[in-house]
Design goal:
Layout lengths: L12 H10 L4 H24 L7 H18 L9 H16 L6
């Protein structure tokens, strides 16, 4: 990882994840991420089970909507998605697992 705060680069997700967690230190922000991710899973499974795939358009709106509210109003930072979209998406789901398993406080 470079130390230039304007444009950090990461060689691997393992290098990125500590940065990602630092950007999610606010508990309300993390909770909004968990709520958004849970709703994404509910909508995804519901769409697949019912065959009503029109609802899939809502997945990014739900997932990013909750997350971005957390960042802009509680964490007061820019979402990592803007500069590191793939690592950030993976980070969302790893953090989700870490919250559900108690590794990170809810």
């Amino acid at each position: 990882m470079t130390t230039d705060s304007a444009q950090q680069t990461f060689k691997s997700f393992k290098d990125f994840y500590p940065f990602y967690l630092q950007e999610h230190s606010n508990r309300v922000c993390r909770r909004l991420h968990v709520v958004g991710s849970t709703l994404v899973l509910i909508v995804l499974f519901s769409a697949v089970l019912t065959g009503n795939f029109i609802w899939l358009w809502a997945l990014p709106v739900i997932g990013y909507g909750f997350a971005w509210v957390g960042h802009f109003f509680f964490e007061k930072n820019k979402p990592a998605t803007f500069k590191h979209p793939w690592y950030s998406l993976l980070g969302d789901w790893v953090m989700y697992k870490d919250v559900l398993t108690g590794k990170i406080p809810w």
